[in-house]
Amino acid sequence: GSGITPVMKFLQGHRVPMSIRVAVVKLLGGILAIGSGFPLGPEGPAVQMGASVACQMATNLRAPRSFLRLIVAAGGGAGIAAVFNAPLGGFIYAIEELLHNARPVVLMLVLFTTFTADTWGDVLNWIGFGKNQGFTRALSLEVTRTFDLADFTFQPIDVLYLILLGLVIAGLSELYNRYVIAMQGWSSRVFGPRPVLRMALCGLLLGLIFAPLPAEFADGAALKKLVALDLRDGTTDLGFNLVIFVAMFFTTGLAAASGAPGGLFAPMLILGGAVGLVGSELLQTTTGYAPSSFVFAGMASFVAGTSQTPIAATFITFALTKQIVLLKPMLVASLSCYLLARAINRRSIYERQLALEKQHSIWAPPLIAPVSLR
């Protein structure tokens, strides 16, 4: 599975394995699944790996049990920070989604952990473990980031368009949540305790779907880059972006139903970016003007609507651009999307996945009490 729901279940006090062994298995499984072309992202496994390593370290160092929940959540936030090079995004995600807590001691520990993970991610990228995208090297071992993106502006009229974009994406994100949960429920009923058969059949179906499509559709990173290049070049192919949205919408639900290790954040970013590009093209055609921030506002909004973490979604998307002018439009769209999505259904996709797991399996009694740090 994604890896986020086991961490949430652990933080609620249920028996969930958390150790170095779990982290290694999740790493290898994620590499195989994502490398095989499953349209999933690395952030789910990264959250569980970070949380598992943190739990193992806390156990080895005999940390007080009252801090175990906090340390595990900080490790999960560190996983998000490392994957997206987004220390603020990981920090806020741990507070907003995992802990629901904002005491000073909590903020300090989570902030330190996520920024440390992001720093080590920079160092490993500089050494060569990764694509080094956006990085330059210097003899002084200095790590600097460079980005080749379009110039963005923010006009007062953009607020109205961004609110409308957020409201539209709220409806789409709710449909996406229901579809993914329905697919996972169907998979659990049909296949039961036969994960190999489930992954094999889902993988076969995904291969048949991706076969007639361009090669980028089997590589989430390449597809996300393709959306960004479409924005940078200033040309938007309405039909192609609709194909991207429809294909990713249905295939990520199928991939999630397979139970393969992988997250949904990366597909959400692609879906939101495609909606933003389609909306931008429609506005440009009908009114002669479209906000330049629509694609990244769409990315942030889709994550906000599905996970119901608008602030974390904004800063995770901001990490892709590092352009401060985009913060305001992304916040406007994300908050409008979140408010409507919350009015439609108060549970995020991960909370629904927890309820689905509880429905199709017998949860073990609590291993630790869900300690409150309020």
Structural features:
disordered C terminus; 15 helices; 2 domains; mainly alpha; two-stranded antiparallel ribbon; 2 strands; Clc chloride channel; 374 residues; single chain
Lay out the secondary structure.
Elements: H1 4-11, H2 20-35, H3 43-60, H4 68-84, H5 87-99, H6 104-127, E1 135-137, E2 143-145, H7 158-191, H8 195-210, H9 220-232, H10 238-258, H11 265-287, H12 294-307, H13 310-318, H14 327-344, H15 349-360
Antiparallel strand pairs: 1-2
Helix pairs in contact: 1-4, 1-15, 2-3, 3-4, 4-5, 4-6, 5-6, 5-13, 7-10, 7-12, 7-14, 7-15, 8-10, 9-11, 10-11, 11-12, 12-13, 12-14, 13-14
Which second-level CATH architecture of the largest domain applies? Answer: Orthogonal Bundle
Give me the CATH superfamily of the largest domain. Answer: Clc chloride channel
The oligomeric status of these chains comes to: single chain
| DSSP strand count | 2
Give unreliable regions as ranges.
132-147, 362-374
Number of helices: 15
User: How is the main sheet built?
Assistant: 2 strands, antiparallel
CATH topology of the largest domain: Clc chloride channel
Strand content: under 5%
Rg (CA only): 20 Å
Number of domains: 2
Envelope shape: globular
The CATH class designation of the largest domain is: Mainly Alpha
**Approximate helicity band:** 55-70%
Strand order of the largest sheet: 1-2
- The H/E string reads HHHHHHEEHHHHHHHHH
